[in-house]
């Protein structure tokens, strides 16, 4: 697989993909990414006006080729600036010749998206009534589930290349006919005679083939801690019995229930006092006063890693300075946690469901006052609270004016006086609501509790409320949740002015790294912040979200929560609104620059010395860069694991891959160890980086240095049996036991 020389063109805005183009400077332009593949070395050339998405997709493709087709042993160099990469440019000039004239401008990405969608076509090849049928079934975006193991398919990449995908269970006749028809496409469609037809076997798909699909997942591939891939569903708002244990298995349920998790994480609460954060006594957690502002940090684990939600609760009677200080302190607290927190603005009385759930049914909202030690005014002797909720997930008590007209026959009310605490149970309340009210009553008052039913109130009860008065007594109709279709908007100032553009029929691919996106789910407004968005876009987006609510023709509630979500740290109640959300799309939250730095010191490639009399594929590093190369090689192995959800290693079904790879890289047997010397214990060899290995140990053949007994104990077979296996199986087992 090292004997290769090709140029790949990476382009697109919403649907970034790569095509093989002529190996010439004439193929280049200023606005796209080009990948020069020389076998042992891959050089990514980034045009001066290319997008972050194109850079990221180009680097992901380069890493996929390195890890799945070159055994992790090729090196990647990146040219962001030709002036800063003279040695890499020298290699490119040796391959492509000297460049003459200026580079041309790129075709606009939006137009390229249309061309790509029109040019990529998938044809189904199958037998029907003893006849062979070739039927066009899809254009871009293609999905993996279109490929059925029982049949063959032809994927026509608009004349750039034609792929023939052969299902494992397809018949020999179908396989032969599919190839014949693919070759026939070249003449029938007027493609150049040099158009390449590549045969792809089911289960051994190349990186170039997989990147043409919206998403590619290997069978039984796990995500995070053993979560097997399942196809996602679009969230639909319908009445479902809510089970918090289903949140992670069903992200669409997390979306419709507006729940990040099962609310079992940890809570920290601060009150804004003198414009600074003051910790709240944990005994007071869940009690919020309308004259204060609070910050609530919720921490939960997902895939073994901490995630954060930062709630900014704004009291109705808090001062403007306190509200501003609350927002500023939230930014500082977010930075302390690596800018990973999901920020949620909570207006008093509009607490989202997850906010209720984290306080386990003990949330109490006081109309005014403060929880500070030095209170400006004494607390009223008589207070009335309306309690709504049936369990720990959805219950809160809200203070209402202490008069009879505040009562409602459908709910439970707590009347706190200097002598007693009355639990008033309306005729329409349920047993669950009464039980939750008893729990809240212990928080509101330490006085004796006295339960009374509607219509059986003592005179003292009415006296405390200032006398009888009419109140709402009709049976409440259950709220009908209309099926609101969520809407996604792109917020961008790339044209020089800030505009919001609606994305129709949206999916995860539409979340642009360069911009801020607004997702309206009716009960909440999400602002998704791309890694490469600028400050103006972020500030304008927040103001525009408020303006969006004000001008909405349906008369939206201006207190609707606005939730700030950062790219790579999306909670389940956000991702559930998207079809088949890929949690690894952005490399676990890494930006292009972070992905680039994870390669190790990529400048090592710029010190490659080329033997001009030898073939260009025989690039090698000089001794001065050996240690740096080892570092990059170690990073390559780590990256292979990190990217397994996107790209998997090819298997022996791909004859061209396994034969070439084995012939060029045949694994040495233990006889290579001179004179039987250099046998080391397993502890010295397993899970060790190149720098940690004993001097003289070949890092690509660690298993050779094991004793026969240790080898058999680890692999469960002899060395002879091990080396008779296909190369890819050897590599997988070496990775499994930390010897790769």
> What is the strand content?
15-25%
Shape: elongated
Largest beta sheet: what is the strand line-up? 14-13-16-17-18-29-28-27-25-26
Q: Kindly, what is the distance between the CA atoms of the first and last residues, rounded to a whole number of angstroms?
A: 19 Å
Count of DSSP H/I helices: 19
Proportion of helical residues: 25-40%
Q: Any idea what the radius of gyration is?
A: 32 Å
Structural class: alpha+beta
Could you list the spans in which at least 5 consecutive residues all have pLDDT below 50?
220-248, 477-482, 608-614, 620-677
Average per-residue pLDDT, rounded, comes to: 76
Main beta sheet: strand number and arrangement?
10 strands, mixed
- Number-wise, the strands total 29
How would you characterize the overall build of this protein?
- The protein is of the alpha+beta class and about 750 residues long.
- Helix content is about 25%, strand content about 20%.
- The chain contains 19 helices and 29 strands.
- The strands form five sheets. It has a ten-stranded mixed beta sheet with strand order 14-13-16-17-18-29-28-27-25-26, covered by helices on one side.
- It is elongated.
- About 35% of the residues are buried.
Summarize the structure.
By secondary structure, the protein is of the alpha+beta class. Residues 674-740 form the HP domain.
List the helices and strands and how they pair.
Layout: E1 6-11, E2 17-21, E3 33-37, E4 41-46, H1 52-69, E5 75-79, H2 86-96, H3 109-119, E6 120-128, E7 131-139, E8 152-157, E9 161-166, H4 172-188, E10 196-201, H5 207-210, E11 222-223, E12 227-228, H6 251-256, E13 266-273, E14 276-279, E15 287-289, E16 293-302, E17 305-314, H7 320-336, E18 342-347, H8 353-358, E19 363-366, E20 383-388, E21 396-400, E22 412-416, E23 420-425, H9 431-444, E24 448-453, H10 459-464, E25 487-492, E26 499-503, E27 516-520, E28 525-529, H11 535-551, E29 562-566, H12 572-575, H13 592-597, H14 626-642, H15 655-664, H16 682-685, H17 708-715, H18 719-723, H19 727-736
Parallel strand pairs: 4-5, 9-10, 15-19, 17-18, 19-21, 23-24, 28-29
Antiparallel strand pairs: 1-2, 1-3, 3-4, 6-7, 6-8, 8-9, 11-12, 13-14, 13-16, 16-17, 18-29, 20-21, 20-22, 22-23, 25-26, 25-27, 27-28
Helix pairs in contact: 1-14
InterPro entries: ADF-H/Gelsolin-like_dom_sf, Gelsolin-like_dom, Gelsolin-like_dom_sf, Villin/Gelsolin, Villin_headpiece, Villin_headpiece_dom_sf
Main location: cytoplasm
Domain HP: 674-740
